[in-house]
Amino acid sequence: MISANNVTLQYGKRVLFDEVNITFKGDNCYGVIGANGAGKSTFLKILAGEIHPNLGDVSIEPGKRMAVLKQNHYEYDEVTVLNTVLMGHEKLWNIMQEKDAIYAKADFSEADGIRASELEGEFAEMDGWNAEPDAAALLSGMRIHEDDHYKLMKDMDGNQKVRILLAQALFGEPDILILDEPTNDLDIHTISWLEDFLLDFKNTVIVVSHDRHFLDTVCTHIVDIDFSKIQLYTGNYTFWYESSQLALKQKMAQNKKAEDKRKELQAFIDRFSANASKSRQATSRKKMLEKINVEDIQPSSRRYPAIIFNKEREVGDVILSVRNLSYSSNGETYFSGLNFDINKDDKVTFLCDNSLAINALFEILAGNLEPDSGTVEFGQTVTKSYLPSENAAFFTADLDLVDWLRQY
Ligand SMILES: Nc1ncnc2c1ncn2[C@@H]1O[C@H](COP(=O)(O)OP(=O)(O)OP(=O)(O)O)[C@@H](O)[C@H]1O
Ligand SMILES: [Mg+2]
């Protein structure tokens, strides 16, 4: 259990948190949401003890261990991959270090012997003998190959580092797990691995994410940061969103009878929990929803900005036609004989383990790269825009943001 008690934090004139009280407990998974700059990361840092609030405090149940996903990708550069994961459990790691130092001594005294046996006892109690295999298993789950476990962190690429730091946070079953946007930079396989891990996880998780699907899969509760306050809601993201929208609509309909409103909300809860699938998580969420009171559902004051594309003219049925497309680079075939059509209203995801191949395909579709063979044909009426993954070339001039946008 971890609680924030009367937490108040102010940066200059801006009050980020005003007397916030909230408790996180059990095997619940709390999804923290809020607009950019609302203070999600700051709140997690307060919980982790990295930032001290102006007023109030954070208390953790005695004897409970908290683990935090590290954001600094260079912190462990001189450490091996496996040790980086082991260091996630600080107490165990310190025991291992002290033990090794004693055994490495040339003059091993009687006092050393006593200390060593104390340490061995603690080590065994913490299941230390399984630490390395457990860490290795986590790394394999993250698809970090065994050949890389004894390499240094600085020799890993950015994507691998993210996964290793995630393994570090998950290592040794912490009682409280704090994750700030863990799915950023993760590939789709690792995201689904992480979802499964969190579904099986027996302890408390507090996770910030902007990924609605991820929140819906793993969360039992939603924590909304808005207007310097923090509100706690039962249910996953979709339940929170739809129920609070419904409550808002009811609030507008002043003349509706209270009893009718209550019935409508109850029907919504029943429908929502009946639709939950049969997975374990869904079952526990369902139980939680069955306990929810209609009175607990609050209208949300949240506004949802959106980007709306106005079409210059209606497009035809055929958007894109790709025929027999091939491309290779440095003797490696990225793809060959590629054929597909994209029609009006299709929304298509391209999945590929090789980011270079995907990049090449998109560069070809954008007209920036010539294929080895084949054709790319867009419909006559289509206008297109391209957001490349490599964008450094756009930011070479020394312009502020407004002037930068003016260029386009
Ligand atoms: N040390 C600091 N001094 C002054 N202001 C700060 C400091 N740290 C953060 N802020 C401000 O506090 C606000 C909250 O920042 P925070 O990073 O917690 O937001 P966030 O909700 O995590 O946003 P995002 O969704 O973009 O990650 C921002 O306006 C930020 O500029
Ligand atoms: Mg943040």
List the defining traits of the structure above.
408 residues, three-stranded antiparallel β-sheet, 13 helices, 21% strand, binds magnesium ion
Fold blueprint:
Elements: E1 2-11, E2 14-24, E3 29-33, H1 40-48, E4 55-60, E5 66-68, H2 81-86, H3 90-103, H4 110-125, H5 131-141, H6 158-170, E6 176-180, H7 188-200, E7 204-208, H8 212-218, E8 221-226, E9 229-234, H9 237-252, H10 258-275, H11 280-291, E10 318-329, E11 332-343, H12 355-365, E12 373-378, H13 401-406
Parallel strand pairs: 3-7, 3-8, 5-6, 6-7
Antiparallel strand pairs: 1-2, 1-4, 8-9, 10-11, 10-12
The structure holds adenosine-5'-triphosphate and magnesium ion.
Question: Short summary of the structure?
Answer:
This protein has helices at 40-48, 81-86, 90-103, 110-125, 131-141, 158-170, 188-200, 212-218, 237-252, 258-275, 280-291, 355-365, 401-406; strands spanning 2-11, 14-24, 29-33, 55-60, 66-68, 176-180, 204-208, 221-226, 229-234, 318-329, 332-343, 373-378. It is α/β, with parallel strands linked by helices and 408 residues long. Among the domains are: 2-64 and 195-296, P-loop containing nucleotide triphosphate hydrolases (Rossmann fold, 3-Layer(aba) Sandwich); 318-395, no CATH class.
> Can you count the beta strands?
12
Per CATH, what is the topology of one domain? Rossmann fold
Rg of Cα set: 26 Å
Strand content: 15-25%
Major sheet strand order: 5-6-7-3-8-9
Order of helices and strands: EEEHEEHHHHHEHEHEEHHHEEHEH
Shape: globular
Largest sheet: 6 strands, mixed
Give start-end ranges of low-pLDDT stretches. none
**Structural class by secondary-structure content:** alpha/beta
Instruction: Name the CATH superfamily classification of one domain.
Output: P-loop containing nucleotide triphosphate hydrolases
- How far is the N terminus from the C terminus? 51 Å
Percent helix among the residues? Answer: 25-40%
